[in-house]
Write a structure and sequence with these properties.
elongated, binds adenosine monophosphate, single chain, BirA Bifunctional Protein, domain 2, 5-stranded mixed β-sheet
Length: 422
């Protein structure tokens, strides 16, 4: 039986990995220009971290985690998201006792047992940032500005930024009661999941993707109207900071996010042109998370972007042509007996920063020339009897078909001169 990649996973072949490298670099450069530094955490964690940090009532914890017992019967989970692991690091390494805020970014695979479709996978990749240690609303604005900066550097200007405040635990509790009261007589008209959500976390009924559920609760009280004075002030400062920085947003009463530890600012970024899975990233403030994980009462804010959906956007919206890395030089060994000289020359070229390769398939000189043409190398360097005996190399410029006989130093500087000018 042929073994295939598991459902919901996929391979990234070289033609596609150039696209990944392109967006990863933009994200890394953008985050670093905002003072964020990279953090890498394990791909699996103790299951309890996500149960406590993401919340039992969420879809992620209740139905999407890849959880298994290791050989010592410890329950481990492939990370479904990056925020709880960052909070764990903050506590475990005592980072919170140093200079605050701590600003981190991460990227890598996440795992959720979701129903695969375009833009939704079981192993997918996120780029995320987290800033711990300040509840200053301007930090919220900065994090959102970074998100928008990434989109602008990627040439994705047709985004929609949705913004809301989910309040603090005090105003949210009061709001929850109001919402429960409002939805109670309408419960029968909700989908099965929402009936469950009604008991576990009624706010999540608001972001159900099923239109009939929205219709059923039309006219519901908004959390915006229930915000306490502190949360109102916090939200309005975030909005003003965004406006002052030329960032437009849509206030979205339905935006409550699926995770229990969110507080105050919540946001999502959509690219309407890419189809059903148009939410490309989301984030918000999670002031209760570090404490919920047994650490000190330290606030935080962050976002995560789905790399696959960004790539889909770049492809669908035809935003960019990606060129493959090409060789600078191809060493053609005209006769087997000069293989060693060919290999030494090749290594010297590479040491000098020239992207070079040779044939290892036993091809004839003519076939190697043909193969060199396919690699699209700009230069071919011929290694034949005359060259080895007389101590020069023949350099052929594949673009204008000119040919020169040069000593090794001259050869290297001629190639470098052309590639540096590119
Ligand atoms: P979340 O951590 O659920 O807030 O998701 C943040 C972003 O990660 C989303 O906006 C998506 O772009 C991406 N994402 C979440 N789940 C998946 C998935 N199963 N497959 C692909 N991308 C995903």
């Amino acid at each position: 039986m042929q073994v295939k990649a598991p459902r919901g996973t996929y391979d990234i072949l070289p033609n596609d990995s150039v696209k990944w490298q392109y967006i990863e670099k933009i994200m890394k450069d953008s985050a670093e220009s905002f003072g964020f530094r990279e953090i890498r955490t394990p791909l699996f964690e103790h299951t309890e971290l996500f149960q406590r940090g993401v919340g039992q009532g969420t879809d992620i914890v209740s139905k999407e985690m890849y959880t298994f017992n290791d050989r010592s019967q410890r329950s481990l989970t492939l990370r479904p998201e990056g925020t709880a692991p960052c909070a764990r690091v903050l506590i475990e390494h005592g980072v919170f006792s140093g200079v605050m805020p701590v600003k981190w970014y991460y990227q890598g695979p996440m795992f959720r047992y979701d129903r695969p479709q375009t833009g939704r996978y079981r192993q997918f990749h996120q780029f995320g940032v987290e800033a711990f240690g300040s509840n200053n609303p301007y930090l919220d604005a900065e994090v959102i500005i970074l998100l928008v900066e990434i989109f602008s550097r990627l040439g994705l200007s047709d985004y929609e930024l949705h913004l809301n405040s989910v309040g603090c635990s005090v105003c949210r509790d009061a709001y929850r009661q109001k919402l429960l009261h409002y939805i109670a007589p309408l419960k029968e008209r909700l989908c099965q999941d929402c009936r469950q959500r009604y008991f576990q976390n009624p706010l999540r009924v608001l972001d159900c993707k099923i239109e009939a559920c929205h219709q059923a609760i039309v006219g519901y009280p908004t959390i915006y109207d229930s915000l306490c004075p502190y949360c109102q002030e916090h939200y309005s400062r975030v909005k003003v900071a965004l406006e002052d920085n030329g960032i437009s947003y849509i206030h979205d009463n339905n935006l409550v996010r699926g995770l229990d530890y969110y507080s105050n600012t919540a946001f999502e970024i959509h690219l309407p042109g890419i189809g059903a899975q148009s939410a490309v990233g989301g984030g918000g403030r999670y002031d209760g998370l570090v404490k919920a994980l047994g650490g000190p009462d330290i606030p935080g804010i962050g976002f995560a972007l789905g790399m696959e959906r960004l790539l889909l956007a770049l492809d669908r919206l035809g935003k960019r042509e990606f060129s493959q890395p090409s060789l600078d030089a191809f060493v053609v060994v005209m006769n087997d007996s000069y293989e060693m000289q060919g290999l030494q020359l090749l290594n010297e070229l590479r040491r000098k920063g020239i992207r070079a390769d040779k044939d290892y398939g036993g091809r004839s000189g003519k076939a190697q020339m043909k193969y060199a043409g396919k690699t699209a190398a700009r230069f071919v360097v011929l290694v034949g009897e005359e060259e080895v005996e007389k101590g020069f190399w023949t350099l052929r410029d594949m673009q204008n078909k000119e040919q020169f006989q040069l000593g090794q130093e001259e050869l290297i500087s001629s190639i470098r001169c052309v590639i540096e000018a590119k």
